[in-house]
Amino acid sequence: MQARDIRYNNNSANASATGLVDSWEYRYLLGVVWETTAKMTGTVRVGWLNDKFVNSTLPGYSGTSWEVAIHWSPLTYSHLDLSTNRDTQTPINPLGYVTVTAVYSLGWSYEWNSRLESKLAMSEVDSTYQYVTTGVQTTKTPKYSLALTYKMRRWLRFEAGLDINARNSAIANYNFNESIARLGARITF
Fold it and tell me: Where are the domains of the chain?
């Protein structure tokens, strides 16, 4: 069982500049954590979430919340990760007071040999914004990622990857398409 009490205290100068106001978040989750074999581990928590504002004229949120993470290794060199959660976030717009976000992710990594690893991932973020003036708006943001890592030495890795990200929203200003190609090195001491 998990209960969290999160309080956001924003002074009046900060609140008028950012649109944030004092609020409380109460989360009650009940779940299980398991490690059935070396091949599978997981966490599942399901419960209730309440977001309330000091200013009672602002809409709050009360509804289900969850956190799920499952890791499965069918082979010693192949791993699947599945995760999802539902939560509230700080508003991105001064007119929006509650943002409820559900994230769904699936990832696969494969170790081709002791030096070369590939990763493939996809996720979707579903956000629901509750605005004071315009009501409820929703967005869907799918993301796809592909990466290849070469471990040259214990302390030196090279990585190349591609991320494709897009947001589909009823609010035209929030829509975007993004593609990022990356190439990098990681040095650890």
Answer: 2-137
Evaluate whether 50 touches 26 at the Cβ level (below 8 Å): yes
Q: Which two tokens stand for residue 133?
A: 């003036």
pLDDT tens column, 125-159: 998 877 666 677 788 899 999 999 999 999 999 99
Token pair for residue 129?
Answer: 């914004």
CA atoms within 13 A of residue 23's CA, in its CB half-sphere: 21
Asked if residue 104 lies in contact with residue 82, where contact means CB atoms within 8 angstroms, the answer is no
Position 111 pLDDT exceeds 90: yes
* SS percent in the chain: helix, strand, coil, step 5: 5, 75, 20
Q: At residue 65, what is the residue type?
A: S
Strand (E) or helix (H) holding 18: helix 12-18
**One-letter identity of residue 132:** V
Q: Which of 156, 161, 155, 153 is CA-nearest to residue 183?
A: 161
Give the global pTM: 0.79
Residue indicated by tokens 């890791």 = 71
Q: Which two tokens stand for residue 148?
A: 């290849």
